[in-house]
Specification:
Alpha-Beta Plaits, Rossmann fold, 2 domains, 5-stranded parallel β-sheet, 4-stranded mixed β-sheet
């Protein structure tokens, strides 16, 4: 089936002059000279898969994301936010669905082939993108046109806010932390490091990356303005919209509310309330499906804590500076240039 699938797709790519930039498993990253060619090949692929005689009556469905931009070209292929946006648009869809960014939709709308039209799906928040994305669905006669809601940040409970700037670098750290927090036995991870190293931003990025891994959501509890350890539980209750009750301790209320929840809680800026580590441990003990990610200048020193030291962004060796192209690939340099 995989061989047939690849043959059908590659035949369509070649017909419409698609350039295969990368392939991983069953995923293809294809570049086209014109946005209309990308739309034509997307329709051709979906029809070829729908018409193919798969064994045992199986229907193979793929999701396709189309975006038009100006990515950077390197020796390893295309890189940049445009590449990331195309991947995230694809990830938001369902099998059989073709999604387009606003940039692509504007280019192809006057030139759509017969039997094809665009359906406006509105703006959505996608993983790793600091701006909302306006999405359109390509509706094709004879192919499925009705799908479940898009798999975006809005489709999972969370209080994650859009960040005003792009997240740069730290791919290794994000991947490592996501792998760690997906393990059932890992319940508490503490990001440590000095002020300004990027603990909060890394924690938020990990939370966004894991938003669909926790059934009951991902929530951030900001503690920068909290200086009393006893108020950490109350702040958590407020974040989760859990009402206080007379004659019942806040910790007991929070434990009862989260007892069966599969949820990730990000406690940000914990260093000034580190004495609240014991209530956090008690909460984890009472809630077997709860995971907690903490950002703090100091570890909590409680059982089963996984401490993760956040390193500085990568910098070049000053005694032998590389050329500008290589220099720009260092995380600290890229961050400075982007912010400046």
């Amino acid at each position: 089936m995989l061989a047939d699938y690849r043959h059908l797709l590659c035949t369509a790519f070649e017909r419409w002059n698609g350039h295969q930039v990368d392939t991983q498993g069953d995923a293809f990253f294809i570049a086209f000279t014109r946005a209309t060619d990308a739309v034509s090949v997307a329709i051709a692929m979906q029809r070829a898969l729908a018409d193919h005689p798969w064994p045992e009556g199986v229907m193979l469905r793929i999701r396709i994301g189309l975006h038009t931009g100006e990515p950077q070209r390197t020796s390893e292929g295309y890189v940049g936010l445009d590449v990331q946006q195309a991947a995230r648009i694809m990830s938001a869809g369902h099998g059989g669905q073709i999604l387009l960014s606003q940039a692509t939709a504007a280019l192809v709308e006057p030139h759509l082939p017969e039997g094809a039209s665009l359906r406006d799906l509105g703006t959505h928040r996608l993983k790793d993108l600091h701006r909302t994305t306006h999405l359109f669905q390509l509706v094709v006669a004879g192919l499925p046109a009705t799908f479940p809601p898009l798999k975006t940040l809005e489709s999972h409970p969370n209080n994650l806010s859009l960040q005003p700037t792009a997240f740069l670098g730290r791919e290794k750290e994000v991947a490592e932390l996501c792998t760690l927090l997906r393990r059932e036995e890992v319940r508490l991870v503490t990001l440590t490091g000095p002020a300004g190293v990027g603990k909060t931003r890394l924690g938020l990025q990990v939370a966004v990356a894991l938003v669909d891994a926790f059934t009951d959501g991902v929530f951030v509890v900001p503690l920068a303005s909290v200086d009393d350890p006893e108020h950490v539980v109350v702040a958590s209750m407020q974040t989760l919209s859990i009402s206080a009750a007379k004659n019942q301790a806040p910790l007991a209320l929070l434990q009862a509310a989260l007892k069966e929840k599969h949820l990730l809680l990000l406690l940000d800026n914990f260093e000034q309330v580190v004495e609240a580590a014991l209530p956090v441990a008690a909460l984890l003990s009472a809630c077997p499906r709860l995971a907690v990610l903490v950002t703090s200048r100091a570890v909590l020193h409680v059982q089963a804590e996984h401490a993760f030291t956040v390193p500085p962004l990568s910098v070049p060796r000053t005694k032998r500076l590389p050329g500008l192209a290589t220099l720009a690939q260092y995380e600290a340099v890229a961050l400075f240039v982007e912010r400046a």
